[in-house]
Amino acid sequence: MDVAIDLSWKPHLQKEFDEPYFLQLTEFVKQEYGQHTCYPKGSNIFAAFDHCPFHETKVVIIGQDPYHGPNQANGLCFSVKDGIPHPPSLVNIFKEIKVDVEQPYPKSGNLERWAAQGVLLLNATLTVRAHQAGSHQKKGWERFTDSVIQIISSELEGVVFLLWGGFAKKKSILIDQTKHHVLTSGHPSPLSANRGLWFGNQHFSKANSLLSDMGKQLISW
Predict the structure, then answer these.
(1) pLDDT digits (tens, 9 = 90+) for 15-52
(2) GO MF terms on file (predicted)?
(3) Which of 47, 49, 83, 190 shows the smallest number of beta carbons within 10 Å?
(4) Which of 50, 65, 100, 213 is catalytic?
């Protein structure tokens, strides 16, 4: 696995890349991609970082696993490639945006447009074997992405973290809430949304309100 990552992140993450666990993770990922169909494609594994430079990070959204179906995952959590049907969680995200900030429901589920505005769309696990959800968990990715969250917390200021669902909420302990903002809600998956834990959270308008208070550019969701 070639760690082809945006140069702005390298000085902050190089220590992680040099750790024994990351070298073991690299070998595991190489073997998996060599022997099985895995997602996203190799060049997109670090896409979340490539589309959102370190010092431009204003909002962080944390997902769990890449999509494991063909042509879905593009390296950004909750995002799919252009022309791919929107998975249920993404449908509910767009429905909430439509009501919350009165944006029309978009044709494309590709969230690179958010990343370009400073939204880091970070899955806790960056790779997965096709049709096997969670197959690359507990191999080292979580240690790496937890370190990413801690580095953002330590080295940046005024970042808005959107933590959706129990898994993401557990990451709040990694964030210095005296200098950052944390918004939590249920997960946008149908199971959670249909129980009234997602719709109406207004996270998109609230995030923009916080950014506005800090004098930062708003996100066009």
Answers:
(1) 999 999 999 999 999 999 999 999 999 999 999 999 99
(2) uracil DNA N-glycosylase activity
(3) 83
(4) 65
